[in-house]
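Whether sequence alone determines local backbone shape is best considered at the level of individual chains. Part of our work consisted of pairing the sequence of a single chain with a tokenised description of its backbone. This step matters because it turns folding into a mapping between discrete strings. For completeness, the protein is quoted in full, as a sequence line and a line of structure tokens:

_____
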Amino acid sequence: MNKNICTGVEIKMATYSHLIVVIGILGLAHAAFSAAQHRSYIRLTEQEFSRLPADIVLECLLSLMVTCYGVINMAGKFRGIRAMAEFQNKSMDTVGNRPSFYSFAHRGIRLYADEPETER
């Protein structure tokens, strides 16, 4: 059986999640437009701006949560990470061996040389 074939339920969930994301983004856009409209109203009436009304802040937070929910569900089912699967058949000496970190041009050459070098 091919594991890459999507079932009908997964396709419906993906479509449902896309719809949720679109609704969330539209809600965020509406909250941004409402905030801009509130600021222009405050300027026209020459009132001092203290903060946004609670309904605009609530709409923004709710739309953000809806968008996050849709994005998380859009990815589908999460699979477990099997980090040790690659290293199961290897010994610890093989796993810990990193040839790219070998360095033969280090200060030990000068520290343990047979003849001391003269300074110039």
Q: What stands out?
A: The CA atoms of residues 29 and 60 lie 9 Å apart.
